[in-house]
Amino acid sequence: MQNPCVPAIEVADLTQRFSTALAVDRLSLSIPPGMFYGIVGPNGAGKTTILAAVCGLRRPTAGTVRVAGHDLRTAREAALAQLGVMMDGLSLPERLTAAEILRYSAGLRGLDDGWRARAGDLLEILGLDAVPRTLIVEYSTGMRKKIGLALALLHRPRVLVLDEPFEAIDPVSARSIEHVLKQYVDAGGTVVLSSHIMDFVERNCRRVAVVVGGRVLIEGPVERVAGDSTLNERFVELVGADPVRPLEWLS
Ligand SMILES: Nc1ncnc2c1ncn2[C@@H]1O[C@H](COP(=O)(O)OP(=O)(O)OP(=O)(O)O)[C@@H](O)[C@H]1O
User: Fold this and answer.
1) Is the model's pLDDT at 1 over the cut of 80?
2) What's the 49 CA to ligand 1 centre distance in angstroms?
3) Any idea where the ABC transporter domain is (predicted)?
4) For residue 90, how far is its CA from the centre of ligand 1 (angstroms)?
5) Is 21 in the pocket of ligand 1 (CB under 6 A)?
6) Is the reported ipTM for this assembly greater than 0.90?
7) Is ligand 1 within 6 A of the CB of residue 190?
8) Is 88 in the pocket of ligand 1 (CB under 6 A)?
9) Spatial CA neighbour of 118 closest among 158, 150, 160, 96
10) Which one of 49, 69, 70, 161 has the lowest number of neighbouring Cβ atoms within 10 Å?
11) CB 151 within 8 A of CB 76
12) Domains of the chain, with CATH numbers?
């Protein structure tokens, strides 16, 4: 259990400039420990860029990130030790099986023997035990997500950062993953995730930040952000629905 007075993640004035784009613009967020926290926004809003900075995968142009009180710039090792990360594009040893990659990760992290039971549980719950000889290189997109989640959880981090965890995941697996994440939060962990699945965010997240153009448009308890609408309706209202004109060539 984390100290309830110390935010799980604290982002202050985060700015990320790419050559052609200002992806994140002086963004600040304080994410309390022990809850699901959702970051939502339209395509290109900056969600992945924010999460990459939070995980120390990209050094921001400006601003600070603290993980459980540890500044990523001045106490990087302590900050990263608190984190489990699942993001697309993280490279995996492609010629290993799921069990081998978990063993490899446990060795790299110097985990004590308890990792074996956790690895077995994770492989079973995520359905990866059904394909014990399949190499990562042969995995589908959804299977890669699942092994990514298992790797993120193996060392029992205090904060899990998940970029689009349900993208490409079938409904049965999604339910298993939701169950695992709920248990993790019930045990005091913090899940910070980006998602386009408003239904999931509404059902599970205690707080949500709506990010547009690299800035926070609105942040707060999900029921307050949603107001009298569903979160999905509120999102469309906030972000602005594109007018849909009929395409004559389709009729
Ligand atoms: N490596 C990069 N180089 C240049 N521009 C980038 C790079 N990565 C992201 N961007 C730009 O930064 C902005 C934010 O992108 P980001 O991927 O963070 O958005 P997102 O909210 O995660 O989008 P999506 O919902 O589509 O995944 C976009 O304009 C994108 O084109």
Assistant:
1) no
2) 6
3) 9-238
4) 16
5) yes
6) yes
7) no
8) no
9) 150
10) 69
11) no
12) 1-82+157-239 (3.40.50.300), 91-156 (no CATH)
Please give the pLDDT value at position 245: 84
Task: Supply the angle between the helices 171-186 and 115-125 in degrees, to the nearest 10.
Answer: 140
Return the residue whose CA atom lies nearest to atom 7 of ligand 1: 18
pLDDT tens per residue across span 114-133:
999 999 999 999 999 999 99
Structure tokens at 205: 């997240």
* DSSP β-bridge partners for residue 70: 67
- Lookup result for tokens 């990360």: 85
From residue 189, how far is each of 4, 48, 129, 161 by CA, in Å?
11, 21, 25, 11
Q: How far is CA 147 from CA 44, 94, 138, 195, in A?
A: 26, 12, 12, 19
CA distance 59 to 194: 19
| Calpha distance 10→7 (Å, rounded) | 6
Quote the pLDDT of residue 209.
Answer: 98
Q: Report angle CA 36, 22, 231 to the nearest 5 degrees.
A: 35
What does pTM read for this prediction?
Answer: 0.93
